[in-house]
Amino acid sequence: MPTDPSTFTLTIVPDEQAMSRLAADAIAATAFQIPEAAIAVPTGSTPLGMFADLVERVRRGDLDLSRVHIYCLDDYLGVGPDDPNSLTGWLQRAFLDPAGIDPNRVHAVPATDPDPAAAVLRYEAELAARGGLELAIVGLGPNGHVAYNEPGSAVGSRPRVVRLTPQSLAQASAYWEGAVPIPDHAVTVGVGTLLEARRIVLIVSGEGKAEMLRRTLHDPMSADVPASWLRSAADRLEVIADESAASRLA
Ligand code: PGA
Fold first, then answer.
1. How much distance in Å is there from the Cα of 103 to the middle of ligand 1?
2. What pTM was computed for the model?
3. How far is the CA of 197 from the centre of ligand 1 (A)?
4. Alpha-carbon distance 58 to 162, whole Å?
5. Ligand 1 binding residues, C-beta < 6 A
6. Cβ-count burial 109-145 (b if 16+ within 10 Å, e if not)
7. How far is CA 167 from the centre of its chain?
8. Which of 16, 53, 150, 238 is an active site residue?
9. What are 23-57's pLDDT values in tens digits?
């Protein structure tokens, strides 16, 4: 569908299943070319179809993900992977374990470190030592966040502790189990971290994201919509949206 070679690549597909297949193709191609590639994947409902598609390919024997390094984008501050509310733990159950990814090659953000500010610097240094991200698959938050880079996040932001907005807390509360309140801080990779990836794929589905996708792709880039910063790496950015999510794009 419509692509403008002077900017990012936009692919509009009929439905979520087709979006998931294309995103899975991006991971499969990267893992095929570079078996030990560093790949970042998002959490949330958007990537579920992509994860299912990838697990199915692994089960059929068409794809080997056993050597890739998976980078988790974010997690709640103080919540470890064994906690039922951990985003990393969720990713482990939803995707990493069924896909046969070596747990030693899963890189969680250091959400439970006693000194998270120092720990995120180590996380970033370790990623840089690996050569940086080959591929970053990211979702679009209802408030325009990318990973947990909330509105106000700078284009050059690095991994850090952030305060979550009320909108993100409301989004998280739909999934939260057990004791409340939900931590109002998270640890996230930065926008700058994502922009350094050699390939960036933004996946978006559903009518509920249509207006935010329009703002992300058509409004001037701004910290009001952190995902819009992805366009500053336009030559490496691919947007895959289903028709519902793309319904407000001119
Ligand atoms: P969702 O979350 O896929 O559950 O809509 C996306 C995000 O917040 O990044």
1. 24
2. 0.95
3. 20
4. 35
5. 42, 44-46, 139-141
6. bbbbbeebeebbeebbeebeeeeebbbbbbbbbebbb
7. 18
8. 150
9. 999 999 999 999 999 999 999 999 999 999 999 99
